[in-house]
Write a structure and sequence with these properties.
The chain has 87 residues and is an all-alpha fold. It has one domain. The longest helix has 15 residues. It is globular.
Length: 87
Amino acid sequence: MKLNLKKINFNQSATWNMWYQMGIDIDALTVKLDVTAFYFPQKEQDKLVEYIIDNRYKMKFYKRKHKQAVRNYINAEILAYFPRGNK
C-alpha cells in the first residue's frame, strides 16, 4: 500500500487521513475498528506524518503551529489510532 498525497484532507487529523488512505471514512463508521486487524506500512505512515508536519500551516485541525507541538500531538494519535497489524 502506498501513500496517495492527493487524498490528504487538510481539514482533518492525521488519524482521519491515515484511515482515508485505506478507503475508510472514520466519521461515517457505526462500529469500532480493531486497529490491529489493519496494515499500513510503517514507511508510508512516516511519510504521511512528515508531510503533515511539513504542511502544518495548512492543517486546520491542528491549531498548534510549532513543529514540535504538532509532532507531539500526532505521536499521541499514532499510539491510539493508527493501524498496528504486521505483515
